[in-house]
């Protein structure tokens, strides 16, 4: 999608360093950076994001680029930006992620909040995964979503930003379509979710929703952003990667295919009347759940981990 096809930058005529297929645009270094930051700025403006913003940063290219762009944007807006990192307790991985995120946020002069799973909830991700019946990334997602919302709510943040990209969203939809997963087609993936203060739910935005992994990587490289260069050891087990491979062929046929598939499903959702799911307050932690029995997926997962690991010890 980003191979160089045009020689000159559309805006200044200098040599282009990148060709953006979906926009039919050749860009020089400076104009690519400007183009990228403008896309993020527009997404924040579209959803009227202002006040205190907690940017979730794992240390990968997406979230590190997001933090950089948002920090720059905040310099001429009223955004008050913080970085938030979760140390998942994965050996030979998590400590390195934490140290890269902390070091870089300090360099950017962005205050950092760190949650350490082992210290904060009593279990590391590998411990949780060892007794959970769910695939590793599903269990991790439940834990991370709960911690992100709880931290943001307790610290009084107005919004949370995360680094999802168009490769994530379009692959999620591709898999959902191929597996008749209607629930995911109707409910999964979104660029913005409104806050629901009555339910202790902080507003969430994905400013890179229509930006690709490659654009995020290029932005990171052009700005010398340090990134964790090894993948999470659980990532390779995720079946979603098998579907991701299909995009290289589809994008050659149509460079706008990822964006079009995602936008089509978003439009179809708007055209349908989909009832908002009822929210309940978890009887255990007080955070929201769609479970009418009133115990959220996080509390159910942790209770299972607690019982299994403590009964075994
Ligand atoms: Fe969590 Fe899976 Fe991402 Fe690893 S790859 S951080 S387990 S969601
Ligand atoms: Zn230019
Ligand atoms: Zn709960």
Q: Find the CATH superfamily.
A: HUPs
Topology as a string of helices (H) and strands (E) = EEHEHEHEHHHEHHEEHHHHEEH
Can you tell me the residue ranges where pLDDT is under 50 for at least 5 consecutive residues? Answer: none
CATH class bucket: Alpha Beta
Largest beta sheet: what is the strand line-up? 5-4-3-6-8-7
Number of strands: 10
Describe the global form: globular
Q: In oligomeric terms, what are we looking at? A: single chain
Secondary structure class reads alpha/beta
Rg over C-alpha atoms, rounded to the nearest angstrom: 20 Å
* Tally of individual helices: 13
Output mean pLDDT. 93
Biggest β-sheet strands, sense, barrel: 6 strands, mixed
The proportion of residues in beta strands is 5-15%
CATH topology heading? Rossmann fold
Tally of individual domains: 1
Helical coverage, percent range: 40-55%
Ligand kinds: iron/sulfur cluster, zinc ion
Architecture (CATH level 2) name = 3-Layer(aba) Sandwich
